[in-house]
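We treat protein structure as text, and this decision shapes the records that our systems exchange. The tokens are whole numbers drawn from a learned vocabulary of local backbone shapes. Below, we set out a record of this kind in full and without editing:
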Amino acid sequence: MRGLKGKNVLVTGGASGIGQATAMRFLEEGCNVSVLDRDADALANTGETLPGLAAAIKADVSDLEQVQAAFEQAIQSMKSVDILINNAGISIRHDFLDITAEEWDLVLNVNLKGAFYVAQTAARHMVEKGSGVILNTASTAGTIGYPHYADYSASKGGVIALTYAMALELAPKVRVNAISPGYVLTPMQRAEYSDEMLNAVNRKIPLGRHAKPEEIGALFAFLASEDAAFATGHVYVMDGAETTGGLCSQWAHE
């Protein structure tokens, strides 16, 4: 991608799944990359999974003090942050009637409040230096809703609205977009779905499979590059046409 070589990139939730695949893609593009994650065990393995990282930083995005300290660490390691991949997120699969107040707070604190904390911290740095790109990880769940994921859907709907508002306020210095993946075969997804459930979902997706994390990473790389210099204020869906025909409604009550 044009204009990525030598850029300084911070990826949250970067020790596994979409974040890890995205960090790897930016490393392949010749970027300096730091990852932030709250999973100490996963971070300990980044030397093998992501060779050449500038920094592997432990922090919980739902804690503002930890976010600010982690961002300073990333700047110390790379001198600046040119591109933020605001990706950290969690989900808990269960029925709407069974969601507890504590679980609701946990999901919203990481997925929405955490996204805000990281984005605002990065935006202040980017506005001061005069340029930057912020890319949020949303979800098709934020626009159509999914059964058994009310809290996750609500959080990702918030990320989408946040993306739109940020893009308007931060232009022309900082470009802001989001990617809304559909089903992606990540460790988080694999832990929540049996083989039978995965196969049932695949049958409903026109392309017949889940996305690969590296396919989402490739779109992040494009949107961060100079090839996408006029792209801001949009949410890009990558779901194998799952939502195009309203296919989710066919299995909403299965």
